[in-house]
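QA checklist item 7 of 12: single-chain prediction sanity check.
[x] sequence parsed
[x] length recorded as 366
[x] structure emitted
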Amino acid sequence: MNWEQGVLGYPMSDEIDTYDGLAKVSKFEGGQLTWRPWTNKVTAALTTDLQVDLPFSSGEKWRVVQANGYILDDPKTTANEGDSHQAKWVYCYDLVAVSPTVTKGAKFTASATGTIVLAIQGNANDDSVNANVVVQSLGLGRYASSLHVQQNSYSNTFGNGKPALTVATPWLDRPVAKSGDAIATVGRTGTGGEHIHYCVTTTPDNAAYAPFESVPFAFRNYEVATNDTGTTWKSVAVGRPIRGSILRKGTATPTGLPKVKLSAAKDLLHFGDVSGTVTLPAGKTLSTGKVKVTAFSSWGEPLEAVYATGTGAGPFTYKLNAPNYTNVRIEVSVVDTTDAALKALKGAKVLTIVANTNTKVDVVVK
């Protein structure tokens, strides 16, 4: 991929490995291009494929200190002038409030309406190594991370005093935050100074769910200052603010759900198949109901669910397709049945899904 800059008109990053090392990606201000050896084709994921709201409260003014896809390898800039968010993390934003007294403890708000995936909030406010984070699902392969938040600030805001979410919390029990809801407060855990760090990644931004990388996105319905003091403004429907910009939320009604190009998940992630048989205990027969097979991510999100085919005592066969995440849990249950004994049957196995491969996983329910 040596033709991108001339065609797209953007400064490009060097080619780097994708999150899983299987393909090559070049990242630029307007999105990214990925070349996959198994197709020998280049696909594009653009910033406008995912559109979200600014992650702070209405009426506040914040300055961009590190921007999404900013500078990269632009020869017009001074050496080492680019952001420290580079390579796989180039699509992250850092912001500080224009008023110096506002940043610390400011409300970190949900950037769209979506499920809260997890909240890590136990690290002390002066811990410069370990960061607290609240993660929200914006769709498959798109997880919005509010990083460096203050200790216990999820429970003190959106959590209403309840303990932080964990991977053991059933997915349907995890709350949905609406765009603009306060989900934490701005801090400096895991870093040296208070600021908003907002990024969207292919899995939740935590080492337990590696490997992952940042993905392109755009902000919507905001205003950018046209002078250095933030007294005159220009409305932007959808855009990618650059470093140094002063921003505030627009006056339009909050949009709510993120605007997502669903097919773009195929341009961000790599997928593999899982297939196999489900065996009932000896003497058990499926007289009513269905055998359901679900792939859950290691953070507890259902990735894909299918009904196995077969009748009577089985065996039952299934096949599903899911991202090549690690520690995926294949769970089997019997649903839509009035038979209490059948409903109690469960089975599970854990595996790493391999891209472009059909992995055989047979499950015995008990």
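[x] summary fact logged: The chain has four helices and 26 strands.
[ ] second reviewer sign-off
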